Automatic annotation (TrEMBL):
Compositional bias ranges of the Gly residues kind: 40-55
Annotated GO biological process: apoptotic process
Claim: Membrane is one of the keywords in the record: yes
Subunit structure: Constitutively interacts with CASP4; required for the localization of procaspase 4 to the ER.
GO cellular component: endoplasmic reticulum membrane; Golgi apparatus
Keywords: Apoptosis, Endoplasmic reticulum, Glycoprotein, Membrane, Transmembrane, Transmembrane helix
Family the entry assigns: Belongs to the TMEM214 family.
Annotated segments matching region Disordered: 30-127
Protein known as: Transmembrane protein 214
Membrane topology summary: Multi-pass membrane protein
Function noted in UniProt: Critical mediator, in cooperation with CASP4, of endoplasmic reticulum-stress induced apoptosis. Required or the activation of CASP4 following endoplasmic reticulum stress.
């Protein structure tokens, strides 16, 4: 059913309402079925549409069975009326007389003149009705559109699928402008939606928000109808459906990526029709301009499989270029490209004589660095070892030079960032001898720019390879040439390691120590520096006089600097005191307040200390009476100062132990600590043991 037919001619109002109501009731009675059941009646053209519909929804490539919306019902009626009108005109109007110009056919409907022929007739083709899409949008009557949508909502209040299909059909019928290429390559990425004014955008978005549950089916309908129009000659322009697709996917990009495998099958079924394939790819590619993740899903699932097809490859690469250009921040795309996708892309970019033309291959190669960033992800130091086996297996000596260079750079980067790559390399070494020799020679050539961390790990790896090479040589002549190449590469790399391993800092330190020792020995031998051989050599060479001049200058400038400081330091000090004095006074006042506050809070502890300090001093001065005075001070310390009681009380008691040469009070102190803490003090025990077994 062509979505661009006109809305009926002049019929009687009663007949029109009766027929329209009957056909709408027929559709409403069957609306629960998701599929498209055939008509029961045999209206005009109905013989070719009949047939019972299946219970499930038909595939995208299946033909439409019955009208699914109010717009299509009206288009059916318009087609029937137009056919009858043409037949009546043929019967009533006589043929023109010879020699006379043929008169216009009288329009049906009571002889009214001045009316345009119906849009479905042969006299009014719609293609190119407006010169441009801008003119068509300016001529669009939004009040009429809203009126038609209100009718659709009133007749089908519980079927939002009808509403959105009426919207798309009406817009496509009204927005007839010259056709563009299927991918709109000469326009911005959001064309034609960028031309829509705010009022129409608001109407479209409002209806789409009310129909959120059927948007996936509506997307299918738009693609299917666009493919149908491409089969027709001349066919309608598809601006209305494109506007609806862009408006829908701008806010809900995941609608297009829910079932990409279905669209890939549809793309394969139309592979012989490039215009249809490009139309499908254009529709599915719209989410990428809003969401990088969804765009990469579409490219990897739809466009990457057709990369290599001559008619589709240019758009696939152009879409990827525009996608990465619009999203310079690639963090949202991390994790989308894995090894299974990355290495075929690498082959397309670097391997010659593939299905891409040289210009497309060069364009893909320019995009390759950003694809590599997406593949390696946010933490390449944890993922590169998973890429290492595939990189190593491809790095054959016979591969193209550009490919070989890129593979070696990727392998070196993996070894530099991911330490697990060295373990993977050791495991794969025996099965990949030619590739390993190539990688070892690469490190020989780039040794000066290799980091110290990589050098250390590489040294251990090369030593293990050296042992493996000896074992392979002893086993037999198998792969003798590859083993010899690896042995030579390991030898060259070990020589590089030894040549660049000079400890310059140690050598400088040794030279400095040797020079100082020689100078001291020379001075001691000759009695003074002036009489030493070193001084004579320095005088003859002029170094001594130069050093004396340098020392005099240093002394002179040092004296001037000291004089300047002596003259200006008081001035600067007074200025600093003037500027910072109030602040320092404020800090001092705050410090005093803090000290007073702390002393007020700790008054109880200070009172206890003042009460017990005289007894403690008395205890120190009278050692004979110390055993009777031990309980109160130690118990007080342990009770009032739990955080430091053990160490300080132990120090006091140990001092008493040394002074009184008695261990009775020390054991009593240990008992007090055990009662206080519930555990045996380890430090007390250790020190006491050392004290008891030590020399007196």
């Amino acid at each position: 059913m062509r979505a661009g037919r006109g809305f009926g001619g002049p019929l009687r109002l009663r007949r029109r309402r009766r027929r329209l109501g009957a056909m709408a009731a027929a559709v409403l009675g069957r609306w629960e079925v998701v599929g498209k059941p055939g008509r029961r009646g045999g209206a005009a053209g109905g013989g070719g549409r009949g047939g019972g519909g299946p219970s499930g929804r038909k595939a995208l490539g299946a033909p439409s069975a019955v009208p699914e919306s109010l717009l299509e019902l009206r288009l059916d009626k318009a087609a029937v009326t137009s056919g009858r009108r043409r037949q009546q005109s043929k019967d009533e109007v006589p043929p023109p007389m010879p020699g006379q110009p043929a008169s216009r056919k009288a329009p049906a409907g009571g002889g009214k003149s001045g009316k345009k022929a119906p849009p479905g007739g042969d006299q009014a083709p719609k293609q190119g009705r407006f010169r441009s899409l801008e003119d068509a949008l300016k001529a669009l009557d939004l009040s009429e559109l809203q009126k038609e949508l209100d009718k659709s909502l009133s007749m089908f209040p519980e079927n939002p699928s009808v509403w959105v299909k009426d919207l798309a059909g009406y817009l496509n019928y009204k927005l007839q402008a010259p056709k563009s290429d299927p991918t709109l390559s000469q326009h911005p990425h959001d064309y034609p939606y960028c031309l829509v004014n705010k009022e129409l955008r608001s109407t479209i978005k409002s209806l789409l928000s009310k129909s959120a549950g059927v948007l996936e089916l509506f997307f299918d309908h738009c693609i299917y109808t666009m493919l149908q129009e491409l089969d027709k000659t001349p066919g309608d322009s598809l601006h209305g459906y494109r506007i609806c697709i862009q408006a829908m996917l701008m806010d809900r990009p995941k609608v297009a990526t829910m079932n990409l495998s279905k669209y890939l099958e549809l793309l394969s079924s139309h592979q012989s029709r490039p215009a249809k394939c490009l139309t499908i790819m254009w529709a599915l590619g719209q989410p990428g301009f809003t969401d990088l993740t969804e765009g990469l899903k579409v490219w990897l699932g739809i466009m990457f499989p057709v990369l290599g097809i001559k008619s589709l490859s240019p758009y696939a690469i152009a879409y990827l270029d525009r996608l990465l250009l619009m999203h310079p921040n690639l963090t949202k795309g991390f994790g989308m490209i894995g090894p299974k996708d990355f290495f075929p892309l690498m082959d397309f970019a670097f391997m010659p004589n593939n299905s891409l033309s040289p210009s497309l291959q060069e364009q893909l190669r320019q995009l390759y660095p950003r694809l590599k960033v997406l593949a390696f992800g946010a933490k390449p130091e944890t993922t590169l070892h998973t890429y290492f086996p595939s990189f190593l297996s491809r790095a054959l000596p016979s591969c193209p030079l550009d490919m070989q260079k890129e593979l070696l750079n990727c392998l070196a980067e993996g070894l530099r960032l991911d330490p697990l790559s060295f373990n993977v390399w050791r495991q794969l070494y025996i099965k990949h001898l030619p590739q390993s020799s190539l990688l070892l020679n690469h490190f020989v050539q780039t040794w000066d720019s290799t980091s110290k961390k990589v050098r250390k790990s590489l040294q251990e790896t090369v030593h293990s390879f050296k042992v493996t090479n000896e074992e392979l040589t002893m086993k037999g002549p198998n792969s003798e040439q590859d083993v010899a190449a690896c042995r030579a590469a390991c030898k060259n790399l070990l020589l590089k390691m030894k040549a660049s391993g000079l400890p310059w800092a140690r050598l400088l330190l040794v030279a400095l120590v040797f020079t100082a020792g020689f100078l001291m020995h020379d001075i001691r031998t000759h009695g003074s520096f002036e009489a030493s051989a070193s001084a004579q050599v320095l005088r003859s060479s002029g170094i001594l006089s130069a050093s004396q001049q340098a020392w005099s200058r240093v002394s002179h400038f040092s004296g001037e600097g000291y004089s300047w400081l002596e003259a200006n330091m008081p001035l600067y000090y007074s200025r600093v005191a003037t500027v910072l004095g109030p602040n320092l006074e404020l800090v001092w006042a705050k410090t005093n307040e803090t000290a007073a506050y702390i002393s007020g809070k700790c008054s109880a502890q200070l009172t206890w200390l003042s009460d017990n300090l005289p007894r403690f001093i008395e205890w120190l001065q009278t050692p004979k009476s110390a055993p009777s005075c031990l309980h109160a001070p130690m118990a007080g310390v342990l009770h009032h100062l739990p955080g430091v009681g053990e160490n300080q009380a132990f120090a006091l008691c140990l001092g008493y132990e040394i002074y009184s040469e008695s261990s009775v009070d020390f054991m009593l102190f240990i008992q007090l600590i055990v009662v206080r803490n519930g555990s045996f003090p380890r430090n007390v025990c250790i020190i006491y043991i050392i004290y008891t077994i030590g020399p007196t």
